[in-house]
Write a structure and sequence with these properties.
The chain is 52% helix and 2% strand. It is mostly helical and 747 residues long.
Length: 747
């Protein structure tokens, strides 16, 4: 009997192969043993019973030490990293003594968060560094600056635009605290990170080449196609403007470095615009140093063999024309051997030229984008567009001003190209000048006034550069050419446009000096030192224009009104004003130009028609000196030196009447005669005895005035000598006064 089918199937199972189905894994055998296992670990950081914690370590209120916070700076959670930064500030506020010793480790941890992808972490870090870095001395901070700059420039090229913009914010902080280290190496051939920083700016703006490529076409430094918003572009351009300002002020050899040692914060008077009016560099350097600060010995002695710059003017000095031509530089003891030539080829000029060409299209596009909105006659502009246009104008001024101030180191082709670019930029601005807001708003009015002054500065640059003197030696007799054949404009195609722009600027500057305001404000903004110094190149460019090149258009102020307005403003400026010292030095300098044998400019004080106003200005200086007293020694030094130099040089503005007036007006400075109380000490006696320079200069001024006066002026002369003798009695200057009186024969 055959086997049943059931047994056959059971027998076949042992030898059959299972079919694999699609998507099913291989089945495990029935006798397979599962060897997998699971385990959980418990991590207890800093809680090990085997570790004893130091109770003396500085900690936060949450018992976190410095090492704990450093480890949390690398945490994967953004909120934890942000809390760690905030805890660092708490730790340093509770224990400020550990700040200096912790800088290396701390900054090493912080720099990695400059390019953090979380915006909150970057914002918190920027706030923390803004608080921390000013607390650290610059000497301790400078060694860490390369590390900070390295990570910041890396963040400038980050793939995310918001990280690049935040990197610029970090640069703003570093420029505020250690600007020298940030801009160091911005030109070719110098070590430092400044070049990388500048490349980062250009990359964000997509504005040109790798900065070292000075030849060939401009190639984009960034492949990013992100279009910056007005606010982001403002942040970048504002930071770039600060970078260029620090770079240029550190590198270019301008003529306004010397400031008074009595007031280091004083704004120096620029004189670079006067350099083209001298035949050579050496006499201009000597002229520059007429008002330089001096040190003084504790025991002053009259040394006839080595006279100082405050030498006493002898009676025959003003009447001897032969001595004036050669002895002043020698008597002033000017150390010119250590001074570099102003016309020496600046190593940064080529870099500045290339940078100006690189940024030209960006600046022009930025201006054209904002101008219709900013200068709208119907409404005041938005703050972002107004600030963007202002910072664009400042970058123009920094770049083109720095280059054209040193224009003697430029080739004719370079100068022509730069003037073409600047003239194009000014051409777009001229249609709106003078700039006025649609409605009166103080903040907007101040911004528009700054724009007006920048426009005046740029126009003055073109005026100073466009008129080229013939090469060769220029005699004093040929300073004022009578025909256009002796002088010509190098940029003839822009002569008409430049004449129009100069006329508009002349009218604006005149009204500004007269206290009027084109911005439509209820009360005009008073001139501040930086504003006044910014106007000086413009004032000089207008004063020094040759008569044959001046044509007056309808509505423009006459050229002579600029000088008249400047003198009126100088006389009306109060003695306590921060601008007073600048007005005194500038007017004294233009009066002294006539006494320089190497001066070859077109301005001649004898042909201005303002001689009486100049004499009024001279006679108001003793009153200024009396009002200042001991309160502003820097201004007192400028006033005394101005009178002293004019007397020493035999200025044509100081005649017999002015000598008598100075004697009468200087007497109260030393001694006041009260109708009831009698003789009282003047402001001179209140000047601290530690300020020997001021006291000695005042004595020198008196002896110089007495030396050039005649003995027939008995009463005024005698009163002044009595006043000075009484004021110096019992002071270190008493012996010096007696020595001078004896040496000059005044006794």
């Amino acid at each position: 009997m055959p086997k049943s089918s059931k047994k056959k199937k059971e027998k076949a199972v042992d030898f059959s192969k299972a079919k694999l189905k699609l998507g099913k894994g291989k089945q495990l055998p029935s006798n397979a043993v599962d060897t997998s296992f699971k385990a959980r670990s418990i991590v207890l950081p800093t809680q090990s019973i085997a570790t004893e914690k130091d109770a003396t370590l500085p900690t936060t209120r949450r018992k976190q030490s410095f090492d704990d916070l450093v480890s949390l700076m690398k945490h994967y959670n953004a909120n934890t990293r942000k809390d760690a930064i905030l805890s660092f500030r708490e730790l340093f506020e509770l224990h400020p003594d550990i700040v200096e010793s912790s800088m290396t480790i701390l900054l090493g941890a912080c720099v990695r968060l400059i390019g953090d992808e979380d915006a909150g972490v970057r914002k918190t870090l920027l706030s923390f560094l803004s608080w921390l870095l000013p607390l650290v001395s610059k000497e301790d901070l400078i060694p860490h600056v390369p590390l900070l700059i390295l990570f910041t420039t890396s963040a400038q090229t980050h793939i995310y635009p918001e990280i690049r913009i935040d990197a610029v914010r970090f640069l703003d902080l570093f420029l505020e605290i250690v600007p020298e280290s940030v801009v160091d190496g911005w030109t070719q051939g110098n070590s430092g990170h400044g070049k990388r920083v500048l490349e980062g700016y250009l990359g964000i703006l997509s504005a040109g080449t790798k900065y070292g490529d000075t030849e060939g076409e401009l190639k984009a430094t960034s492949t990013a196609s992100v279009v910056l918003s007005s606010q982001s572009k403002l942040i970048v351009l504002k930071s770039l403007s600060a970078f260029l300002t620090h770079a240029v002020s550190q590198q270019l050899r301008l003529s306004n470095h010397a400031t008074s040692n009595l007031d280091p914060a004083a704004v120096p008077l620029p004189t670079w615009f006067l350099a083209p009016s001298f035949r050579s560099t050496r006499p201009f350097i000597a002229y520059q140093r007429l008002f330089r600060p001096e040190s003084v010995d504790r025991q002053p002695q009259l040394d006839a063999e080595h006279p100082r710059d405050d030498f006493i003017c002898m009676p025959n000095f003003a009447t001897d024309p032969l001595a004036t031509a050669w002895s002043l530089n020698d008597l002033s003891d000017l150390s010119l051997a250590q001074t570099e030539s102003l016309t020496h080829l600046n190593s940064n000029t080529s870099s500045l030229i290339h940078l100006a060409r690189t940024l030209y299209s960006t600046l022009l596009a930025s201006y054209l984008d904002c101008a219709p909105i900013v200068f709208s006659p119907s409404a005041n502009p938005p703050e972002a567009e107004l600030n963007l246009l202002t910072v664009t104008a400042r970058i123009m001024k920094t770049l083109y001003g720095s280059i054209l101030q040193d224009r003697f180191s430029l080739s004719h082709a370079e100068e022509e190209t730069l003037c073409d670019e600047l003239s194009t930029l000014l051409g777009y601005m001229t249609g709106y000048f003078p700039f006025r807001p649609a409605r009166r708003e103080i903040k907007v009015e101040h911004a528009f006034q700054d724009l007006n002054i920048i426009y005046c500065e740029l126009t003055a640059l073109l005026v100073l550069v466009s008129f080229r003197r013939p090469s060769g030696d220029i005699s004093r007799k040929a300073r004022f050419p009578t025909s256009r054949s002796t002088a010509f404009f190098s940029h003839v195609k822009y002569e008409g446009k430049l004449t129009l722009q100069a006329g508009l600027v002349r009218t604006y500057v005149t009204s500004l000096l007269q206290g009027e305001d084109h911005s439509g404000a209820h009360i005009s903004r008073p001139l501040i030192p930086t504003m006044y110094t910014a106007l000086l190149p413009t004032i000089w460019a207008l004063l020094n224009q040759p008569k044959e090149s001046y044509t007056r258009s309808q509505g423009e102020a006459p050229i002579d009104t600029v000088l008249s307005a400047m003198l009126d403003q100088a006389i009306k400026t109060t003695s306590k004003s921060a601008v007073k010292a600048l007005t005194v030095e500038f007017i004294a300098r233009i009066l002294l130009l006539e006494t320089e044998s190497d001066y070859c400019g077109h301005f001649d004080v004898r042909n201005t028609g303002e001689q009486e106003k100049f004499r009024e200005w001279i006679l108001h200086l003793p009153k200024t000196l009396w009002e200042i007293g001991p309160h502003n020694l820097a201004t007192s030094e400028i006033v005394i030196k101005s009178l002293l130099r004019l007397l020493q040089r035999g200025s044509i503005m100081i005649k017999h009447e002015e000598i008598i007036g100075l004697q009468t007006r200087l007497t109260p400075f030393f001694m006041i005669t009260h109708p009831v109380r009698g003789r009282l000490p003047g402001p001179f006696t209140k000047i601290p005895t530690s300020s020997l320079l001021i006291r000695r200069l005042a004595v020198d001024l008196v002896v110089t005035i007495l030396s050039v006066s005649t003995r027939s002026e008995g009463e005024e002369r005698e009163n002044l000598m009595i006043a000075v003798g009484s004021a110096v009695s019992g002071t270190p200057e008493e012996g010096y006064w007696q020595q001078l009186v004896t040496a000059t024969g005044l006794s």
